[in-house]
From TrEMBL:
Residues 29-493 form the Topo IIA-type catalytic domain. The lineage of its organism: Bacteria, Pseudomonadati, Aquificota, Aquificia, Aquificales. InterPro entries: GyrA/parC_rep, Gyrase/topoIV_suA_C, Topo_IIA-like_dom_sf, Topo_IIA_A/C_ab, Topo_IIA_A_a_sf, Topo_IIA_dom_A, Type_II_DNA_Topoisomerases. GO terms for biological process: DNA topological change. Its EC number is 5.6.2.2. This is DNA topoisomerase (ATP-hydrolyzing).
Amino acid sequence: MEILEVPIEEEVKQSYIDYAMSVIVGRAIPDVRDGLKPVQRRILYAMHDMGLTPDKGFVKSARIVGAVLGHFHPHGDQAVYETLVRMAQDFVMNYPLIIGQGNFGSIDGDPPAAMRYTEAKLSKYAVLMLEDIDKDTVDFVPNFDGSTLEPTVLPSKFPNLLCNGASGIAVGLATSIPPHNLKEVCTALIELAKNPDIDTKEIMRYIKGPDFPTGGVVENYDELIEFYEKGRGQVRIRAKAHVEKLSGGREQIVITEIPYQVNKAELIKRMAELVREGKLKEISDIRDESDKEGLRIVVELKRDADGSKVLEKLYKYTQLRKNFPINFVVLINGEPKQVGIKTLLYEFFRHRLEVIHRRSKYYLKKAEERLHIVKGLLIALAHLDQVIQDIKSSKDTQEAKEKLIKKYSLTEAQANAVLDLRLQRLTSLERQKLEEEEKELLEKIEYYTRLVESEEEKIKVFIEEMSNLSESFPAVRRTFVEGVGGEQRTGSITVVVFSDGKVMPLTEIEEGEVVNILDVPFDDGLFMVSNRGRVYWVAGLQALQGSKVSFKEPEERLVGAFVRSQAADRLLLATSEGYVKKIPLVDFEYKAQGTNIIKLTEDQGDVVKVLQSPEEGDLLIFTKMGKILRFPVAEISPATIGSKGVVGIKLDRGDKVVGMRVIRGEKFLLIITEKGTVQKMVSEYVPRKSRGSKGLSILTRERLVDILPLGEGQFLDLMLITQEGSVFYDRVREEELPLNKAQKRWDGKIVKVVIK
């Protein structure tokens, strides 16, 4: 055996480089195409092999870990399980790739239960990443023992790298990619596909900045463009918190979102230490009121303490404000590189074009193979009697096959298909089906050939995929980015509140049932009431970049919304079964999300309308069958949270309350029906009665949608929503409407009217 002498310096250097590259490629740095490290990719592929799709049942995590270790990743079981857990934690990943059942840890740093106790399956986002993997879209290599194959990368229709982010420490380098918003990333990818010369500044028009699963506020937007260009820098993020005024002049600080990767329990512990050390003498108590609906930390202050100043101290001394590193280090063609955000987007775009190309080649080949068989079957059917005779006269299958090949110029594959043909396929109807199939296959071959040969056609498919992805998985931004488009922390924004809980800027309006359109100051609160009598709220800054209510019940939806500073001191609620309730706002504002403000029983139905209650005026309650009752608002006494309320109107059997309005001296009422007609009537035609009485019948044929008080010579700007989802905008002027005469004004079945 020959012994080679190598200087120790060179051997150490080469060994170190080999080890470093092994760690970089095999463990720590994600692939730019699917955003996954090898162990993550192997877990998802193993679960795909096991058939653990979202529509199937859960299986024990230990079984998944065993499959990963046995087939793809012969390392420590605990390391595999920790990776699986991380992919299921919604406070770590914006769009979890795994759905977990059981204890998967918490934002307080609690560890997950052992793998024998927890269960898991793939999420809808993971399914997108694995879509078309069986259509020759990616390369496969032998696993560690050569017993099976594993993918080198996933097809990944879902842009995982930017949407979920990545972090890892290798030898000599590290990666830290913050998570981003799916809708923004899809939009940026579409724009990149349309214009490959797009620069980082233009990309940042679509991707506003990081979007962390734990929310928070990004403070240094002006620096982000430079950081995203270079692929290196720091995001400065702070918690979302506000100061609440309590009775007796005291204040308290409520924290509803904390920076990404901050341990909530350790954060509260640090606050308590600062109180003991005397740095935060103004604090009298700290409570963690978080539940499954959301995070809520309450910091109670002493009587003379200034809440704003204490909050600034908390930002200074605790992790309520922290820096998150940006370090876009990824594997491109197997090599670690530090790149900007445009390269991250472009490499994903290139990967998807390659997947579309290979998938199209696969479908093209399958279509050509099938067309070949169909043509053979049609030849056989055209000479059916002779073919049957040739087969009957053959001594065995081989002879029959040879006759078919020689006599009818069929290939071996076509001859086998003819011999496999069942008798029921010999009818004229089956021949017609084969001719139709031949026509469809020719069209498919033409389409897939065009896709394979044309870059433009592949780009069109990519744009369509990203558009569908953005529409199919609407993603409301969680993290507010200060300074986007020049917005400051003062001012206001016009938002649209939807019944499904979305709150969106008017400029980004989506389809859906609109509850209200209103201006929200950044330093104020937007309050929303659901049909189940619960109150939810978002801060004005959250409304600026979109938010979504987390309902407590599956069938819950919003029915009303108002801005706190613009609201009266009391709120009026009406239920479908005729109950009304007046609630002082001070009793429930800024309490825990989903606080019940009316105790709904089965005989009350759902909340159907929410209004701000004036001190004077009359309340109009109206029903779907056209009954209307008018009585003084003063007849409803203020009630406490959780009480039942009082009977507002007595209903006929089968009738329901559809709404209510307050009238304060307006001369006319506009009656709007579901058939799109409007009628003006004198308001005095509806006499005042006592609360709890039966209403006056004003409609007999059409169902009532809304009644709007209108003064003489005034106009109303209306938005009307139809059952099909169409929206009409109309300005209704009092003097243009004839008195007591129904006028057909809108097409479609009107279901809701909003005064703009």
